[in-house]
Amino acid sequence: MKTLLNSILARFSESRSWKSGLEACPQCRTPLEEDSVHAVKCCRDCSGVWVVPCLVKLLLTSPEKSVAHLLSGEIQDELTHQPGPKRDCPTCRCHMKNYLFQKESNLWLDACPKGCGVWFDSGEFALARRLEAKKQP
Ligand SMILES: [Zn+2]
Ligand SMILES: [Zn+2]
What we know:
This protein is an alpha+beta fold. The chain has helices at 5-11, 53-61, 64-67, 124-135; strands spanning 33-35, 40-42, 49-51, 97-100, 108-111, 118-120. The chain has one domain.
């Protein structure tokens, strides 16, 4: 069953602050580093990005120069990111779920069902921005 990312963004749209503590990358277990500007956390090893749900839409529609440092990683145009093996939420350690970014897209993202955050693999953040921009009239 497909669950759209919007459902979790809507459920957790209120402001949230990070819990303090060491959060490890769900992909490579490297401790995530906090981004001072945008309240996101990044993995230096795999360029994955961990974003609180209330910030996702904002970051996806921000001017490119303000999020340029989050856009590392190669964009694959036909990225068919199928639901993959279960990963753990970096914040609360529960199993993350796969959410479809948009009805028309093939981009699947991991997100914590409790609203801790949304995980973007390397290149996925840039691809999500591109898909979001396409949607704008
Ligand atoms: Zn990583
Ligand atoms: Zn969580």
